[in-house]
Amino acid sequence: MYKMVVLDLDGTLLNDKKQVSKRNVEIINKIQKEKGVLFVIATGQNIKNISYIIETIGKAINQYIIASNGAIIKDNVKNDYLLKRHFNQEEAIRVIDNYKKLHLRGILHTDKGTVTDGNREAETNKNTKLVQDMKKFYIENSISDTPMFTLCGEELNLRKMKQEIEVNFKDIESTDICHFVVDTGKEHYETDYLDVIKKNATKANAIKILADYLQIHKEDIVIMGDGANDISMFEMSGYKVAMGNADENLKKKADFITDNNNEDGVAKALEEIFYKEEKACVQ
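Above: the chain's sequence. Below: its structure in token form.
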């Protein structure tokens, strides 16, 4: 029996409207109650921006949260952090200077909330504040806790930024380039993006730290994801689930491919994993 399930958010647990479906909520709560499985969110988002997800699902997913792509591990029960990794001021300013040269749009995740210099990014996320000059905002607000940047824009420029980080930044790395979709019903928005983080501040490393802390073996962990940046996370699990809408390279690594994020793919996979044998016995 698996002891822990790690769920990515965007493109996985959340549909394109950024909602958790009723069926996903029900199956998570059912498995937690009946089988005592620990559910953990692992997301690139800022902790402050996902409080509505915790409220929607409830205590079944409230204990531990991996946020900012792995830079943060929070114990919500104790209101304490198992891990916090942040840029220093010099590093953050260098990232800003470089992405602006490449005409990218930035989302800055901070202890004071999430800010962006991209109009579309602000329009499609009510929790994100729009600023005109990211560098000026960062300096004037004396921001100390900056776990991650999300950079959006053309794939070619993102690749140039990724190469710049690999060559000229000693203690910083970036994820692979991913694709982001927002569909509010009134507006459809897509962009390519990558996350810029401190070295080893990844979802994979955070899962390992949390599993070691809880003394849960790799073989007892289920991980579900959709993006190329979830490939390394898959290596920390005993059972790997890719969404139907997942990156093709992630699908190649999966043990099971479920339905897409708009068709209750998480719920269908959980039912397959935790209740398949029971259904067979009934039949």
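Residues 89-198 form a domain with the Hypothetical Protein, Haloacid Dehalogenase-like Hydrolase; Chain: A; domain 2 fold (CATH 3.30.1240.10).
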